[in-house]
Structure formats: structure tokens, C-alpha cells
Amino acid sequence: xxxxxxxxxxxxxxxxxxxxxxxxxxxxxxxxxxxxxxxxxxxxxxxxxxxxxxxxxxxxxxxxxxxxxxxxxxxxxxxxxxxxxxxxxxxxxxxxxxxxxxxxxxxxxxxxxxxxxxxxxxxxxxxxxxxxxxxxxxxxxxxxxxxxxxxxxxxxxxxxxxxxxxxxxxxxxxxxxxxxxxxxxxxxxxxxxxxxxxxxxxxxxxxxxxxxxxxxxxxxxxxxxxxxxxxxxxxxxxxxxxxxxxxxxxxxxxxxxxx
Length: 259
Fold this sequence. Notes:
21% helix; alpha+beta; single chain
């Protein structure tokens, strides 16, 4: 059985444009809704916040968590994991979904006292398909030593919590160049491949030169399209990936046993 899905991953820079000159979350919400994505992976998104004016420029600053504001009526299910907490609020990763979560968990992968990072792992039930999809939203650290340790934790998480016959997607801001040794070792250990077969860059948004925003998939996922729209709200561009999930006989047996 095959199911077609679309995902979007986007580092929204807390709702501000590059350089923090304008608050553009309203424009981001319209953009994300227009993509028609089934699943949305977001990084640097506000949860709790306070002390903001109601208006910043021509955009209104919402009085609710920004993941709820972006989810609106398009994505009835969402999960949020804080990875930075400060006096006026917090921000982290979020997954918006058109399908219900079976469960989700935020995993702390901070390796240094002043570097707050986490990985959000959601397991999603795809109705009328007979399979569960594992989704991991990541935003890795800025230092190579930090990322190496976080990728080791991520590989251990996959090995211990993702059955080999269940589909898996990892998406987000990896904060490293494509083709580095750390990424190669991680992908080989986790048996993953990149959806971005043409190496399309996503950062910086004005003149992208670097592929920082990755979509990594397991063997049972067939990528049919991958694109990086020319959008400049954030300092990153959004990434859109269309794919088919092929349900194997082994996955069907596993799902029925778990039910």
C-alpha cells in the first residue's frame, strides 16, 4: 500500500526576517498554509512569550503560542518541544500534523550549559493506511563537537525507539554543510538517505549558498519531489518534499500485532 504525503521544514527565526528588522509571522502563516503540507517541521518557534507589543510593523504579534497560531485550522494536531527558556518566554521545535499523534517526546540533547538544544520525536498515525510514521524535528548546535554528540544521541534514539520496518523522516536545521564526515557517519549508522539529491541550498534566504536544512528519509520512503521556494521571510528558506510511503508486509504485520 502506498500513501502520498507532503512535508515542509522551516526555521522561522522566531517570526522575524533576516536581521530582525521586521516581524513577519503573519506572512509566514499564509505561506505555510499555501503549501498544503500534511506535516510541518518548524524550528526557532515561540511557545510561551510575554512583554511584546500587539503590533510590530504591519504585522500583529499573536497573543498565543506561535505554533498554535501557525497551525490555525489547517493542522489540528501539533507537538511542541522547548529547547531555549528565558525570562520572557521560550522557543523550540514544533511539528504540525493533519493526522493524530500516537505519542511524542522532546529529547534534551544540550551538551553545554549555555547551549539549549532538543530533538522532537513524534509518532503519527496515518488514517486508512495501516502504518505509523516516525517524525523527528531537529535543530542542531553551532559547534562541530556539539553536533557530533547530538547526532550520536539521535542515532541511539532511532535504534532504540524506531522499529526497522517503520518509516522515518528527519527534518530541520542541521547547522552544518552537506557531506561532512559527521553527517556521513550518522546517515550510515541510521540507514538514511537525503531527499535533496540535487544539493539545493536553503541558507541564507536572500542568496542561498549552503544546504543547512535537511530532509533525511528511511528506505520505505520514495521521494517524488524536492524544492526550495524563493521565499525570504526568515534567514532560511523553507524546504518542501513530496514522497510516497510504501507499506511493507512486515510493517503491516508489526502494526496489527501492536494494535
